[in-house]
Amino acid sequence: xxxxxxxxxxxxxxxAMPAVDEAQIDFETIELLFFAYRxxxxxxxxxxxxxxxGRAHHRVVYFVSRQPGMMVTDLLDTLQITKQSLARVLxxxxxxxxxxxMAGAKDRRQRRLYPTLAGRELALALSEPQSRRxxxxxxxLTPDTRASVKEFLRHMRGRDESIEPIDSDLD
Length: 171
Fold this sequence. Notes:
By secondary structure, the protein is mostly helical. The protein has helices at 27-50, 55-66, 72-79, 83-95, 117-138, 143-156, and strands spanning 70-71, 99-103, 111-115. The protein has a domain at 28-138: Arc Repressor Mutant, subunit A (Orthogonal Bundle), CATH 1.10.10.
């Protein structure tokens, strides 16, 4: 049974946005970060696409490979996502043979994650082009300037507490 349209569009009520002084926004740096990130993830994206995976898989494989034996709860905290968001990706990585999940030795309720050999190889294959890109970008910088770049990136971490968090998915 179909319903006839009344011809009236439903007007969505948009939330009020704070007043912003556009002159105070550093658009150049925002764009540099946007394009740097786009290109930084492009090489791993191409590798992942060949095996039917995406950035969410990349993040999980990366952190599990960097911290073998990490608990699922620690991974959730690191990625700042919900259990539901992680479950699908983790299930696929386990079923594909990239990640192993084991109960903790002392507390069997703990779920600890380990990369398999294939998982470790995948993590390295994804990180290598990113590492090359970083090396190229920093090759002409002085040691002090390199340290400043890393310090800048450390300061960029963390959520703005004035903005309401969302229930984030991995991608």
